[in-house]
């Protein structure tokens, strides 16, 4: 058993060779961010190489122990993992040599508090460093007796199986983690490597009982760690905002903690995939003036993002909205939400290919809402562009990157002058237009409009049909005909148009020849 009173002799018996450190107080605990394909697919991002963070030795817990969810928090999550315990020191070892330096394998629960995750910038010092946040055990499996590619990890919550995966599903083999880490520092005897969690990790609440087991079902005797049992309790001491970060959650943290928006009780987002290649092509062809005219015909009069212009002349953007909201600057709120891995950084880190980041800056052009680094991040991730009703810092550099940005213009100030980055993926107001995640955003030289997804196909088809009609009308005007009766088409001219087009009247045109409103006629 692994416990606070574990004697080295218990490790001797499990390994049958001398070791110099007890697992109850490892010199280092190193954990990997993402390592299982199932988890990476769930998160929507797959790393090209492993990345890590440290956990303090004081976070080690024992089977049968408890873990506290601090007062004022909601997103404590379990993560069933395979823990490797180093048996002999490793420094600059090769892949072929690496597994020989692993002494034991056991179960671990890499607990994390997502309420503190944003301000840790990925270091996870506070979100994963709490007392008891790394329970290990209860038994050690001799690493020499198992195939590292055939280990299994399972997790149960209140008796219900929540995780079940094997090391065959790893993006990075276990030996690679040992070899990689040994490039940077010495792995000493007793050090622990937490090797990542598969899909299925989720939120746990006070009273829940979590069990983790690691075994080698194909090895002789099917060795097992036994079940690592941890019970969640409710803490009573709140965090003090006067001396450090306060817990803060948003829908992104809820989604990642629970595993999905549905599990978190959030409404499903309109997927970016809903903007089909065919629809995207039509919207790229249709001008915003024509699209807005069709929206107004259908009663949508507040589709305009007012006051913004393109940083790259002639650029056009089409994509689904990913929203970011700033609130007015306030010193205490900026202290708690402005630094670290704040909402602004999360939005630019999570934007998907074909999405447009739309920023609510309350029409305040007197400070920047993004700069060249964030623009580069959005460009690399395949964003279609950015729309902000605020300013842009590093304006020329952002234009050189090639990312289309519609804004109120350049401003050299940093974010904290006017704004606090507050939330992502929520309904916002940008330039007087209401924008929801998944809305379709189109921008060109005439400006930016927002289209409800359910109307997009109809609007695009009607706008393109109107473009064909407008082109024919322009030909008639160029031939010397007066615009009276031609713009818009009266009955006589419409008959001529339909004869020339060889098709019946399009539903987007006013077949009576009368105008029903300021945008009912051609766009020219």
CATH architecture of the largest domain: Alpha-Beta Complex
Globally, the shape reads elongated
Rg over alpha carbons? 29 Å
Low-confidence stretches: 1-22, 504-524
CATH fold title of the largest domain = Fumarylacetoacetate hydrolase, domain 2
Distance between the termini: 81 Å
- Sheet with most strands: 9 strands, mixed
Structural class: alpha+beta
In total, how many beta strands?
Answer: 26
**Tally of domains:** 2
Q: Percent helix among the residues?
A: 10-25%
Assign the CATH class of the largest domain. Alpha Beta
Query: Can you give the mean pLDDT?
Result: 86
Number of helices: 13
Could you state the CATH homologous superfamily of the largest domain? Answer: Fumarylacetoacetase-like, C-terminal domain
Strand content: 15-25%
């Amino acid at each position: 058993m692994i416990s606070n009173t574990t004697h080295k002799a218990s490790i001797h018996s499990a390994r049958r060779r001398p070791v110099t450190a007890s697992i109850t107080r490892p010199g280092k605990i190193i954990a990997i961010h993402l390592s299982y394909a199932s988890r990476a697919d769930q998160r929507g991002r797959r790393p090209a190489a492993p990345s890590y963070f440290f956990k303090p030795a004081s976070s080690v817990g024992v089977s049968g122990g408890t873990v506290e969810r601090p007062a004022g928090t909601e997103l404590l999550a379990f993560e069933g993992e395979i823990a490797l315990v180093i048996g002999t020191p490793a420094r600059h070892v090769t892949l072929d040599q690496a597994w020989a330096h692993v002494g034991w394998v056991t179960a671990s629960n890499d607990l994390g508090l997502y309420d503190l995750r944003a301000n840790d910038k990925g270091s996870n010092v506070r979100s994963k460093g709490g007392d008891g946040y790394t329970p290990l055990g209860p038994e050690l499996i001799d690493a020499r007796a198992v195939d590292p590619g055939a280990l299994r990890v399972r997790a149960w919550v209140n008796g219900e199986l929540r995780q079940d995966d094997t090391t065959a599903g790893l993006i990075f083999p276990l030996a690679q983690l040992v070899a990689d880490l040994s490039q940077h520092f010495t792995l000493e005897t007793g050090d622990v490597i937490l090797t990542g969690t598969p899909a299925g990790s989720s939120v746990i609440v006070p009273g829940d009982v979590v069990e983790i087991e690691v075994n080698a079902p194909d090895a002789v005797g099917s060795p097992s760690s036994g079940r690592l049992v941890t019970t969640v309790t409710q803490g009573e001491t709140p965090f003090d905002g006067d001396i450090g970060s306060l817990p803060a959650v948003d829908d992104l943290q809820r989604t990642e903690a629970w595993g999905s928006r549905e599990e978190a009780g959030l409404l499903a987002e309109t997927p970016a995939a809903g903007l089909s290649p065919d629809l995207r092509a039509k919207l790229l062809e249709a001008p915003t003036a024509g699209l807005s005219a069709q929206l107004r015909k259908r009663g949508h009069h507040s589709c305009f993002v007012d006051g913004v212009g393109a940083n790259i002349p002639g650029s056009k953007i089409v994509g689904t909205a990913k929203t970011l909201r700033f609130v007015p600057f306030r010193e205490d709120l900026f202290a708690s939400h402005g630094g670290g891995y704040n909402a602004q950084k999360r939005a630019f880190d999570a934007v998907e290919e074909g999405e447009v980041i739309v920023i609510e800056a309350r029409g305040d052009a007197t400070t920047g809402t993004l700069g060249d680094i964030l623009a580069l991040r959005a460009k690399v991730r395949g964003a279609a562009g950015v729309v902000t009703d605020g300013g842009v810092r590093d304006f020329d550099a952002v234009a050189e990157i090639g990312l289309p940005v519609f804004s109120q213009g350049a401003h050299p100030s940093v974010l904290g002058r006017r704004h606090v980055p507050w939330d992502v993926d929520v309904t916002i107001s940008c330039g007087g237009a209401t924008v929801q995640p998944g809305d379709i955003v189109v921008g060109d030289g005439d400006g930016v409009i927002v289209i409800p997804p359910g109307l997009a196909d109809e609007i695009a088809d009607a706008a393109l049909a109107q473009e064909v009609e407008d082109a024919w009308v322009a030909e008639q005007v160029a031939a010397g005909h007066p615009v009276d009766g031609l713009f818009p088409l009266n009955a006589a001219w419409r008959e001529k148009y339909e004869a020339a087009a060889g098709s019946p009247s399009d539903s987007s045109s006013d077949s009576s020849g009368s105008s029903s409103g300021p945008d009912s006629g051609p766009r020219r």
